[in-house]
Amino acid sequence: MRMGEGNAPAAVVLRRVLKSFGTGAPAVDTINLDIAPGELVTLLGPSGCGKTTTLRMIAGLEEPTAGSITIGDEDVTHLPAEKRDVTMVFQSYALFPHMNVFENVAYGLKVARRPRPEIAARVAEALDLVGLGAYADRSVDALSGGQQQRVALARALVMKPRVILFDEPLSNLDAKLRLRVRAEIRALQRRLGLTAVYVTHDQEEALAISDRVVVMKSGRIEQIGTPRDLYTRPATRFVADFIGSANILPGTWDGAQVFLDGIGFAHAQEDLAPGPVSVVLRPESLRPGPSGLPATVAAISFLGASTQVDLETAAGPVTALLPDAAAAGLETGQQTRLDIAGGGMHLLAGGEDAPQAAPT
Amino acid sequence: MHVQKTEAVMAEARITASPWSRLTAAPAWAGLSLLVWAVLPYTREGRRFLPLDYAYHAVAMGPGAHWLLAVAALAVLLLYLAGPALGLAPRRRGDLAFVTAGLGALIPAAGLLYAGVPFGWGAMLGILGMVVAAGAALSDGGRVRGDAFVGASILLMLLFVTLFITVPLVMVMRSAVWIDGTFTLVQFARTFASPLFLFVDNPYTEVAEGARVGMLGGIGAVLGLASGVRVSRRRTGLRRAGAVLLWLLGGAIAGWALGIMIWGRGALPSTLLVALIVAPSATMLGFVLALLGQRTQSRAVRGVLGVASVLPFITPPFVIGFSMIFLFGRRGLVTFDILGIPPAMNPIYGIVGVSFAQILGLAPVAYLIIRGSLNSLNPALEEAATTLGSSRWRVFRDITWPLVRPGIAASLLLASIESISDFGTPLVLGGDRNFLATEVFLALTGRYSQPEAAVYGVVLLSLVGLIFIGSRIMLGVKGFTTVTGKPASGAFLRLPKGLEAGLTALALVWFGLIAALYLAIFYGSFVRIWGINNTLTVQHYIDFWQQGWPTVWTTVKLSFYSAVPAMMIGGLIAYLVTRHRFYGRGYLEFGSLLSFATPGTVMGLAYILAFNDGALLMTGTSAIIVLALVFRNMPVAIRASISGLSQIDRSLEEASATLKAGSGITMVKVLAPLLIYPLLAGLIFAFVSAMTAVSQVIFLVGAGNNLATVLLLSWVEQGRLGRAAAMASVLILGLLALILLLLVVSRRVDARNRKKGKPA
To answer: Nearest CA to A286 among A329, A341, A335?
Structure first.
């Protein structure tokens, strides 16, 4: 057993990992993934995209049909969960209802037959870490959802795992608590230098918490990148649509300018051949102005911090998110022009009917 | 290839840490087998398991290639301990160890079976140890998704179900067709021709039974023709003619069969007629009681139903029958003293009495099943129908009834199987009628014909099988587990006032009857001779204490010895089939269903046939009684555990696994504490059913280990009713106290859980 003192966080490598449950399309279809030590990587995608299956294969709760999984320098492909240096925080928390907080957190150490004083010290340390030092004797049923979540976190942390896994850990919390706990998880992970794999279907959560995000769809990886990469340079229509909100219009690219409805906009993008393209426009990068794409205001919704304006253009409907000052003069039915702020535009090869067209 | 290599290197790195760490489950169990082989006598002489006979060990080392056990055990040990030196990848090594250990268990076992020398402790434990080692190796080889504990449990459970359920039943079939060393159907022909089995035209009666049966067949044919013509209106030509012909034939067969049941004699028609009367009646009664129990506002009625529904479980199956003799017998309180029916005119012995006793005994079972399916109904459905303008009757017809039908079907299935399997009631109340379950017993113990008993056994098994298949095809019943469901919250519609009053009256009459029957037993235990000399006495209790109590105490011990493994094996099988996927999973489920549905006398016969001689010799020992009870009552524990397991979120076990606990530890530390109540219930019900079992053990008891119910039955047959009543009273009150204790404990657990609030 390698667990115990001073486990260095380990790299996780997935090579051509395939998982199929019986007949039908595989749940995870031949994916490759490299996770560096100390990195927090999020698996993001709609339900049924294979992200949880991937996580469970890293945990050892599912066995890959093909391919290999390496943690550190050890091939763990066929090792069951109890023989891996990996712990997991479950969506349902999976706290043992017949044990109190202390016993829940101490469970793994007891199974590993650590000496009693060491167990007491490490459990206390882990509970302090999640701010539940005073709750050791409580029954887990007597805790709030957020507190239960922290017990689950402490239970996973106390093992000093080489990799820690999170399976949608925040989905049972209310919106405000979710923001706070998510920041705490990220802070702890940074402070302890943990290698972490995090599964969520919430793209905002993924962007906020991750070093890198893996966007998955139908068992395959669509794109891997930093949150900023994914947002500003989505590789596919699906990613553009799934990360944040996007207007996707058909256009033409000549290497220096992109033409929307015949109107040229300066743009720089490498490795893209001239021809028909899909133009990804982020709503917050659009501004009404004297020049640009002719548009008619269709609807105006006041959102508080900003105003959402829906417009009709010759290239298709467009949504813009404007600071209140910029939206001040607009009225429904008004003719205007839309300008594109620098960096708010990204081009995808192929036009409207490109094969990667995203289903909604 | 590359993957395996790195795996081997890694494994090597891991196990160089400590030489002890190489002694994983598979080699450890192989080592234990070797030890057992070396120190315990390999075979035994005769029936005695104890004391250990070392002299015999030395003499009889010969049979069964026993040394292969030792060689295989050594080889497995070597495979693991020599470790990296052999250069085998762990998975290859696991496969190799599985084959080695498997052969090391199979060949010695086959050797002993072939030689016909009884297994001693050495052979038994040694071979079991090798099976465990093989199971552990199976998981090392990655052939089973799970650790050594899971692999070993799977192999052990497959072995047990085969050895103690499948093999005995196969022996029954073999014994029916394999007579004096040749395959023959002559015993079937002889039995089917026997008047004990089927007998229609009785020359000694004035009634022409054959003619009547033929007439009823004709009436059936006419009715069939009429319905066939009506039903097939939409079809034309040949297809219509075919359909009409089928209906005609069906009607004729139905009428003819009914005629044989009514006028014919013999075990087959009697058994079928009783089942045909009992199953619908008990189900109907159970259904109205369940409806009442769910919707009445009266606490008294609920309480009465609750008490009455546990009574059949704690009452030996024929006790209602013999208390009916007290009340309705030839000199019974009601029939003779009050109504003055002359003894010769009393219809109690025969179809009427048996059916009546079975209906009373099975109605509570039907009640529980249908109550379960009523409780899983969502009241919102009925409320929705009401808001859409349905009357109460309409709601019942359109919503409640269709949704409860699966429960009704399950109840019909269970009641008909129980009725056909019932052994005690026909023995006590059958009179001059024969019944299949009793014929098995009479053929073996009265006519000393083992093949004839086996033929009756095969007939019973086929009937049960047909009922199962029929219910699956016609009613879509998938088994008894379908009737469990989560109770929904909300209020059910009340029954119409008049209906509720009517049902309450019915329930009270029913309960009055049951109360009278039980009171008759208690009262009968205190009067000298029922109906003839009504002076009060405690003589029966003194007799019982002197002649019955030692047997009761033996029964308590054996029942307890059987209940604990029944619960453990049942819990383990439930865990395996709900939480793991493996080859043989369906077989485990089918095996437990088989042991549940097989009539008790047939199972008893099967054990006699399988364990009477040769290597598996066990008859005459207490061990065989305990084993029979273990595998008879295990399905109850399986069902209790399965419903308990389905309430436990699987992520708890996964969390335990990610915290480095193997499945054995997870079972002990996580599942067992959460399942404590279902396991306890399974334990107590296994104990209670063992205490009240008759049919499955009646062949297996001997002079030194008679069982309470068997003794009770023989007292009833000898006419020592007072003493029998005394023993029945003690048994019923004792078991009732046990059940009440269980209820109190479960209430307390529930209350504590409620105080704690809902689990996460």
So the answer is: A341
